[in-house]
Structures are given as structure tokens and as C-alpha cells.
Model the fold of this input.
Amino acid sequence: MNSEHFVIKARWLIPMEGADTLLEHAALVIEADNIVGIFSQSALPAAFSDWPVVDCQQHVLLPGLINLHAHTSMTLLKGYADDYALMPWLNQHIWPAEKQWVSPTFVHDGSLLACAEMLSGGVTTFNDMYFFPQSTMDAVLRMGMRAHIGLVVMEFATQYAADAMTYIRLGTQARDAYKHEPLLSFSFAPHAPYTVSDKSFEQLLTYAEQLNLGIHTHLHETEAEITQSLTQYGVRPLARLHALGAIGPNTVLAHGVHLEPAELTLLATQGAHIAHCPSSNLKLASGIAPIAAAMRAGVNVGLGTDGSASNNRLDLWQEMRTSALLAKVKDQNAASLPAYQALQMATIHGAHALGLQARIGSLAVGKQADMVAVRLDALDHLPCFDPISHLVYVAGREHVTHTWVNGTLQYQRTAAGLAHFTQIATEELFAIAQQWQLKIQSARHTAH
Amino acid sequence: MNSEHFVIKARWLIPMEGADTLLEHAALVIEADNIVGIFSQSALPAAFSDWPVVDCQQHVLLPGLINLHAHTSMTLLKGYADDYALMPWLNQHIWPAEKQWVSPTFVHDGSLLACAEMLSGGVTTFNDMYFFPQSTMDAVLRMGMRAHIGLVVMEFATQYAADAMTYIRLGTQARDAYKHEPLLSFSFAPHAPYTVSDKSFEQLLTYAEQLNLGIHTHLHETEAEITQSLTQYGVRPLARLHALGAIGPNTVLAHGVHLEPAELTLLATQGAHIAHCPSSNLKLASGIAPIAAAMRAGVNVGLGTDGSASNNRLDLWQEMRTSALLAKVKDQNAASLPAYQALQMATIHGAHALGLQARIGSLAVGKQADMVAVRLDALDHLPCFDPISHLVYVAGREHVTHTWVNGTLQYQRTAAGLAHFTQIATEELFAIAQQWQLKIQSARHTAH
Done:
């Protein structure tokens, strides 16, 4: 399965290039880390006929999914505090827990578990933002995933850094140390308009330009953030960031729940991207983002899970389904955001947002071989008249059977239904999770 | 596993009686179709110590889930037409397909597959409404499920009946033939205020009173339905049904998307019940029902999937998660509709709505033994600080391992991850599904 060249024979293949195309009985040819051919199985050239074959004859093959907004190491705080209003949730639960627990080891171990969860759900790339990014990178490289690492910047002191200049310095150093890794790419990640000053934005934007890095930030997640900005700066956060020069084709804005039509036009004109996080936006009562309207205005929109403390599943299948359903009610039109568009958001749109569209996000000759195979032959899948619709409205991450990153099979669900990761024994992952559970749970019982 | 007496030893047990109680290391004792004891494992009386034991030591045990609004046989039209606006969806796709396909065999086979899907997702009881109810009952009895069968009534002619009086007569006959079945109960199911005349309502309400049957109808699913009623009758549909005497403690109203505060008060005063169908309400762009407000007003609310053509998953885990998330954004309060309340909606609230609360809906001595076991030891479940929260926000139907109805194990996921139904070979279910898929698909290709 880790052979350097192989052919995947798939019942269906969705290239995610342009309009909604569904190939039947397709053969995808991989050599090293690249896609070198896409054929009908009956027309597979003789040159490939003796290459090893991966049998996906009951499956849909599609590009690996791209999680456009995550705080992966928060997996260790999954379900730590649910069903609280936003401010008590942050002030009384999440921030104290982060203060108590966040360390390089916490970040490494949480990221490792998050990578496992995402790989087993068909995610091959994620766009992260958290403290101690080098620990996340170590976990990513160990698991063989692809990641876009946000070098986080904020004003206030944490265990990671004392002030904005230190965040910028530590982030730059971390990027310097890992910049040659082929599976990693980088952006600056000023946390949010309300946690980063104009001066720090100006500083990090200068570095971002020098280093050719993008920007990943939270924007317009809540009404409160907008009200506060109007009081403090006299403008809404987007207008402020635009005046600072932060809104451009390398900018990924997480959430974007509260966006007016003129703001959508601005984002489209500037070529900025939205990371839509529907489950998190509901769970924290932030609102329903105007995503179909954003896409109609020409804004590129990808999908994110946010962190496990505000979503609890790093599951892009759930986000695809939820985004398609929510758009219909938001638009009062059941034809809004059809299934194929949800798949685009989770694949090629995410790649565009990260500037990686030449390398990943679709299945095309010359692109890197990030792929996911999904079985569509379970009893609950039948009947199946349209595999594209079924992927979004019927299937779930439990139907993912194979996940390849850069030509290597990194996850497989065995015939017995068990998770198998190429790079790490599942037992080791369980041991890490259980150790943190015991540690955090005993302290939580004292605190709660 | 089908022994007439046994003990289930569970890591956690949620009785769903009153406030949110979570028992640890519990033992549930079953004799014939009844729950005869609930103990701590360490305090299991000697009288039960040599009874057969079902090991659920990594599981949560909870009451079987109750699907409060379904059109089960529409499973054969799953994904038949997605992402269409409501009227083209009905007029150009669903109604023509129903006209072409619906028959006693279609209803039987679709219901059989729906029962399999629901059993494997922990649903033990469903509240149905469709044509040829006797065919649904045959499927239910074959699978060993519990169902509340709606005897459908509408004005217009279908393959099933020519006019409202014929629907009433056929429904009454079907009920007479099956009324002694212990797993079946009944209501009249006037389809909706806009498809049933005052005269037919009066007629069926007379029969319902004579036969002591409840009422199951669609209500206030769309704005259009309300506008039309105001034009035709001068009042909103709820006011009209109330004037007819149809709104009482045996009334289940499906959807209830558009309800004003005074209407919620009326429902609470009358003791009527709402079957909340969040996924379907989103997918058809009907709206977001004011469910947390309804419960605050004192209305009993259960959860439904609706039919497979407007949801695509007969999955109450999805509905629990979606209802909890949607309520938060509807209320602009992340504390709204906490996880335990979602579990109540899917269990004891559903039982109340069907008048079955003395027999099912919670785990208590003397109740009938409808139970579901859910593994919470998958890698994606870790860490787990609160099993109640995890059931709603992290787990999915794929984690259901055992479903018992009336003391009998009717579904089990084997160690190899395969579905095993007690009453039917999985191969037979696949064969039925595939045969219908071929038949419908070939005709669909011609039509589309």
C-alpha cells in the first residue's frame, strides 16, 4: 500500500475540477507523490496494467478534505464544557483550562489525536492556529499529514509568549526551523481584531510580506466583537483590517458570521477567503453565516471545524451536511448550496484559500496525491441514485476506508472495521488519550 | 442473547427519569419483556448472579430512541431528488415518483429497510404516516420493532384510496386487523390541514374518540400553508384545528416550524405535542422551529426524522445534535437546549407524545425493555469528561452496538463491525434494496 506506484480502481471518482463531474469505473494512477493519470478502467494503458491495484470498486474516490479552520490540540478539551453561554464558557472553563494545561506536550499530544481523528475522517490538510506551533508540526509530520500552520499572535501573555512581539518572534523562528518540510506551509495568525492591536497588525503584516506568508484570523464571529470595535475604533473590524492592509488574496477569515452585503463585495474584490464553521457558529450561538450569499458575491468559501471544545467532532462530513442544510433555511430556498457545492467547499475551495490549489484540492494529473475513498455500499446507503448527494446527505466519516496523503496511504479502515494508521500504533494513541483524560478529569472534578 | 432473562452490565446507564442522572457500573435486569431491576454492579442481588450477562462495560445504556415523525417506506426514495425548491421537489419529483411506485410491496419493502436502518441506529419505536399502513405493520412485526401507526387520511385520490371516507374506512380496517399486536399502537393521521377538509376532520375525530385513538398530523411546516389557511378559512391552521377539537393531549403535530407565543401557550394548555424534525425543516427551507421556547412554554416536544426523501438519514443522533445546535442560535444563547434535553426529546418526551410513557421511554422497573447500548471507547470519543454531552455532540449512530425491543435483542453490531439483525439476514435486506434501486433508477433515467 505504500508502494511508490499504484493504481486505484474506483466505482466512482469525483475529480472536483469545475462542474459536477462523476466518473464511473475509473482508474487513478499514482507515482511517488503525484497523480500521473486518470482513466476509465476499461481504457487503462498497458504501461500501468501490472502496477499494484487498490480495489475501491464499491467506493467513491475524491480529493482529500481540507479543514480550513482548526485549533487541533484542543482535542484534549473535547466536551470539557458544553452548553454554556459564550462568556462563562470562555472565562470560567476554557481559558482557565488552557492556562492550567497548555504546554508543548499538550499541544503535541492533542494535535496527534486530532490528526488521527481527521485522517480517519478523510481530512488530509488542515489550517491550524494555536500556541506552540512547533509541537503541532512535530505531530503532523509524525502522522504524515499536510498542514498550514498559523503562527499565532495576540497581545496578552500566555505560557507560550509574553507579548505580541514575542509571539511574532517565536512564530518566525518555528517557521524557519520547519520551512523546508514539503507537507507544511505557513501563515501569520493574528488571533482576532479584538486581541491584536493596530501596531502589532502592522508589524506582522510587514513580516508576512517579507516572508510571503498569508494571514489567518477570526473575523466577525459575534455581534459583540463588532459593537466593541465600533466603540473602540469607530469602524467594524473588517473595515479596520482592510485599512491596515490585512484583507487580500492570502487572507483566510474564520467564521464571518456577521457580514453585510457591502462587506461581501469587499471580500470578493480583495480576493479574501472565508473559513465557514457552521457547527461551531451554532454551538456558541454566534449566528448563521451568509455563506450562499458570499459565494454568489464571488467570495471563495471553505469549511472548518473549529476546535474540539466548540464542535466536538473534527468532522468535515458533518460540516458539509450542516452547511448545505443551513444555507437553505438562511436563503429560504431549498435549492441553495447543493451537495456538489458543499464538496467544493471541503476540497478545492479550501485549497484556493491556502494558496495550494496548484498542488491539492482536486484529482488532476500533476497534482499531489491526497485522496480519500468512501464506501457507499452500506445498507443505510441503499438505494443510491446520486453518489454526490449521498456523500453530503447520507454518508458520514465512518464510511471513509482509505486516506492517502502525498501518495502514501496514511489511514485505512480494516475489514474488521478497525482504524489502522500507517505511522503509529492505535494503542499508542489510546494510551496518550487516556493519560490526558485521567490527568484533566481529576483536576476538573476538583475545579467544578 | 434472546434468553428470557438476562443482566446487562453497563459502564454507564442513563435512566432518563427526571433530572439528568448518570449511573456508573450499573446492572439492568431483564425478565421476558420487562425491566425488573436496576442496580449497581457491586450490589447485584444474589438471585440474579447466575443469570446470563451481556457485557456493555465500555458502553452507555439508555432507553431505545423514539422517532416521533416518519414516513418509513419513503426510504426507497432516499436521495431521489435533492436540492430542489419545495414546490418543484413535490410536483416534479416526489409526487410523480409516488404515483409511479407506491404499492403494498413498495410500502412493505421500504418499511423493512427503514426498520433495519432505525434499529441499527438505536431507534426502537417510530410514529409513522403513510399509505398502505398494513404493509408497514407487516414489516414492523417481521423486524420486531415497536411502532405507532398513523392511519392516513386526505382528500385526494391515490393508489391507496379514492376519497377521505375510503381512507378512514381502510385505516379503521387495518387497525382492526392488527389491534391485538402488543408492539403496535395507532392514531388517525389526517395528512395536514391543507389536504383534509373540515368535514373529514369532524368525521375522523368522531372515530378517534370512539376508538380512543390519537391524532398525528403535519402542522405549520411552511409559511405558505399559513397564508393559504388565512385566505381560505380566515384563521391560521392551528386555530382551525383547535376549533374542530383536534388539539388535545393525544395530538402529535409534526414540524411546528411557525408558531407564535400565543400558539405555544395554546399547545401547552391543551397538552398537545410537537414532533420536531430539524434536518427536514432545514433541507426543505421550511425554517427553524422555536423548540426551546415551546418547551419553556410547557409544550412536550419529541424528535422526528421525517421521511428519507427530505432527510436522507433516519438518524435520531443527527436530529439530537442538530436540535441542540439550532436551538442555541435560535435563542442566541449557547446554554439553550443542553445535551440532556436533546436526549429527553429522543426518548421520554417521545413516549409521552404517543401516550406510551407508562411502558417505554425510560429505564425503570416495570417498564418494557426497549434499550440501546452505545460504545463510547472509540479513539474519536477520547477524552470523555461527560458521557451525556458525548452522546449528543460526539457520538453517532455508528457507535450503537445493541438494540433491544421488548426484551429481545433485535440488532447487534458484531465484533467485525457488521450489522446483524435477529429476524432477517442482512443479505435479504441488501437484495431487496438493490432490486428496488435497479427498478427505480432505470425509470428515473428515462424521466429526468
Remarks:
- The longest strand of chain A covers residues 53-63.
- Chain A touches chain B through 69 residues (CB under 8 Å).
- Chain A is about 40% helix and 25% strand.
